[in-house]
Amino acid sequence: MVYPKNAFAQTEKIQFDTYGTLPLEVTILKAAQPRISLLYFHGGGFLYGQREDLPQDYVHQLLAAGVSLYLFDYPLAPEVALNDIYLHTKKAVEWFLTEGWHFSGVGANEYILFGRSAGGFLATLLTARTKHPEQKGLIRFYGYQELFYKEFLQPARFYTQFPKVPPLAAEAMIESQPITHGTLEKRFPLYLSARQYGNWQRYLGNREQLADLAIPAAAYQDFPPCFVVHCKNDPDVPFSASEAFAAQVPRAKTLWFDLEQHDFDRTPNAIADDCYRQMISWLLLIIE
User: What SUPFAM superfamilies would the database entry show (predicted)?
Assistant: First the structure.
């Protein structure tokens, strides 16, 4: 999505890192009266998606509330292993803390992490492993904290109703060089195949590498306030992931919806409108 520049006090696109020769960029949307910075990581099962995927209506609401947004690239799998993806999201946060915060207009390097779906996994992992006192909260929409749920290890019933994308056809979609932008049209069939055949982890790295990304239970005790959203009948990511997560952290505001949807907020609607209103109210409360 391309956000109109005249909607904001300032829009910047900056290279904060590289993966080899691949530039990693961040889109910074500065609020007119900034109060806090929100660092955002997109979803897409690590295989597709791009940083500017938040619906424009909700971007405008966040900016109006004084939230400056940082929308970060990360290299996609399987061209890049998930371990390396995580390390570059870690570099994104480190860049913000040392340099990037100056673009926010806030006058301090405090921040909240926000991730949707796979981005929620990354934001959770960053919160567990980095422990920066500047992090004031975590927002997680239909995310997860583990990679070995049984739902991820076997063919997903929801995806098997679609025409099959055989593994060989899926592998032909893999690029010869790393990428940060994977459109639905070009890359979603890769994710579809992975979930149809229950081999999604194979695209992220070997089992030992993925096990290294496990979060120990004790780590959750130090989490900042969390805002956790999930649909109870999510056909993609198990609702139980968010239930378990919310039960483990000290302070969690939860919104559970009786919907059979995953990314229920991909386009504006009444339920998503209310969700973002509640999220913004919570966000402003925790930074007071």
Answer: alpha/beta-Hydrolases (SSF53474)
CB-based contact 18:26 (threshold 8 Å): no
Closest CA to 228 of 264, 247, 254, 265: 254
Q: Quick check: is 267 in a domain? A: yes
Which pTM does this prediction carry? 0.96
Residue 1 inside a domain? The answer is no
Instruction: State the residue range of the domain holding 109.
Output: 7-286
CATH number at residue 168: 3.40.50.1820
Q: Which of 261, 224, 229, 226 is nearest to 242 (CA)?
A: 229
Domain contains 113: yes
Separation between Cα atoms, residue 20 and residue 18, nearest integer Å: 6
Number of domains in the chain: 1
With 0-12 / 13-18 / 19 or more C-beta atoms within 10 angstroms meaning exposed / middle / buried, residue 202 is middle
